[in-house]
Amino acid sequence: MSSCCVAIVGVGLVGKQVVQQLTSPALSGLFKIVSLTNSKHTLALSPSAPTLDAKTLLSLLPASSQPLPTESAHPAASYSPASPTELVKKLAADARASKQHTILIDCTSDLAVTELYPAAISSGLSVVTPNKKGFSSSSDLFQQVVDAQSAPNAGLVYLEATVGAGLPIISTLRDLLKTGDEVTKIEGVFSGTMSYIFNNFSPATPADGPAPKFSEVVKVAKENGYTEPHPADDLSGSDVARKLTILSRLLSINPSSLAALPSLPDGYASLDTETLIPSALADCKTGDEFVQRLPDHDAEFEQLRAEAEKEGKVLRYVGVIDREAGVVKCGLEKYPVSHPFASALSGSDNIVAFHTARYSQRPLIVQGAGAGADVTAMGVVADAIKVAERMGVRVHL
């Protein structure tokens, strides 16, 4: 097989970066983008047409706010209303007819798209995605994805970018497990937003001058685009809980002599998750209102910081999977200033420590940028390369 076909659903910041990277000189001969889909439109491209550059490809897909084109802007292009269900059926039929493997890349955050994964995989399509929802929601959906991979001629599944963007967190975990290591504990700062907030609010080396108020740090983070439009979406801890759910489930489906982890039937909603949203602000409808009212609660966060400083520690929002204790949780913890989670972190970095039988004296640590469209896209494209290699494409990189 000389190349793989690729269909991308979700052409936002990450999706655009994926297109840019797949059409780079190093990869343009290995991947053929045959479809782009946003929330309203699907652009289909003939696999036999000459390869188009990223700018041309992206220009052919109308914005979701625009009407569906009545005629094609390019001889190789055709249009239809967006329907991921119909897209999966068509991609599977085309792949069977052409004998060319197809990768479905889901760059949405839509649960409904992830519910198509079992049908896509069992029909022979491979799935690559940064979308956490299919692996961190109900245990039934997760099990359907696992079971679909046992179907005859099933596709592959890669989800590196669901945890840590482009950081090799899932691939590291898989390598440890597949080579027979016992992973006893995983702990880390999994949220770039939480990392930025507490690296600034509770630094290992305090800056000169008065310490910043919690509300000020959150406001700056929002203004710089480090938070979601509504900062409560980050401060709820749900993003960290989803990532922990994914790692916990990958641990649980591998044989182990250690005690079983909690089953998490409702996924991230089953986790013990500490929210940092003051209860009085739970009803804030907008991010602007939340930021405006947050200063009323600075004293609560100041007390937490003062308690940590008295012990020579800092505050970090962490996720923990403790297999020996049978615990999966996320929340605010205190760490000595000499701890890697305190002294080695800066900016919005993620850091994850794997404690295992082999790494029992000192944990295996993965650290780096855990957010951003470019690094997330890198994780996605790296997964697509793995699929291509396993399907027989010769990747000379």
UniProtKB/TrEMBL annotation:
Substrates-to-products reaction catalysed: L-homoserine + NADP(+) = L-aspartate 4-semialdehyde + NADPH + H(+)
Domain Homoserine dehydrogenase catalytic: 168-385
Domain of life, source organism: Eukaryota
EC numbers, comma separated: 1.1.1.3
UniProt keyword annotations, A-Z: Amino-acid biosynthesis, Methionine biosynthesis, NADP, Oxidoreductase, Threonine biosynthesis
Record-listed L-homoserine binding positions: E228
Binding site for NADP(+): G10, V11, G12, L13, V14, G15
Top-level enzyme category: oxidoreductase
GO MF entry, a single one: NADP binding
UniProt cross-references to Pfam families, sorted A to Z: Homoserine_dh, NAD_binding_3
Pathway: Amino-acid biosynthesis; L-threonine biosynthesis; L-threonine from L-aspartate: step 3/5; Amino-acid biosynthesis; L-methionine biosynthesis via de novo pathway; L-homoserine from L-aspartate: step 3/3
Cofactor needs: a metal cation
Active site: K243
Amino acids binding NADPH: T108, K132
Gene Ontology biological process terms in this record: homoserine biosynthetic process; methionine biosynthetic process; threonine biosynthetic process
Aspartate/homoserine dehydrogenase NAD-binding domain mapped to chain residues: 10-154
Protein's job: Catalyzes the conversion of L-aspartate-beta-semialdehyde (L-Asa) to L-homoserine (L-Hse), the third step in the biosynthesis of amino acids that derive from aspartate (the aspartate family of amino acids), including methioinine and threonine, the latter of which is a precursor to isoleucine; production of homoserine leads to a branch-point in the pathway as it can either be O-phosphorylated for processing to threonine, or O-acylated for processing to methionine.
Family: Belongs to the homoserine dehydrogenase family.
Protein name: Homoserine dehydrogenase
Organism: Rhodotorula graminis (strain WP1)
